[in-house]
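Lecture 7 notes: from sequence to structure.
We start with the chain below.
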Amino acid sequence: MDSTNPLDGSSIRKNVFMFICGASVHCRPLMDFATAAIDATTDALESVMPTNHLRVTRRFWEPLRIALTMIFEQGARPCTVAMRLALAQLVDVALPWLMQNQNFQRELCSSWTLYVFPNCVYDNVYFREKGWLQLMADQETTFQEMVEKVAAFGSPVGEPNDSLNSADADEPSCGGEHDNPLSIDA
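Predicted structure tokens for the same chain:
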């Protein structure tokens, strides 16, 4: 993340790409580094967004959209869980602030609606049900609405409940015997 311009989202895109590269060659340290960078970005955004959300531009949300598209295109592979969780946390922090931007609202209605947003909602619901994302006190109604929306359109990227929990998943695990992203304690 660029400390001089924390609302520049290019580091999000780059770290997701780095994670996917690491997963493709079974390089766990590279995957862990990229996930930690996304977590650090989320932490920084928690303090930056409340005071700077009106300055958010396409330089933030377009790389975020690309990053989300890249990770969702990987499907429900077990090795992507850590990055999908990190991105779900980032979206959880950024989306309420982004929604206050009229330019982003227009973008959401065009390039995000058909693929990215339904997958974001699905991951948010999935990870909350697992206990990996915590509800904020004022989000309980919104969460229930998300659950209903997900039920209406099903699983956009596969069935994580089946493939991420199945030892017989069709996709390779992306790593060795210790590569179990579901070993995260809830």
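Points to note: The first helix runs from residue 10 to 24. Residues 136-141, 155-173, 175-186 have pLDDT under 50 and may be disordered.
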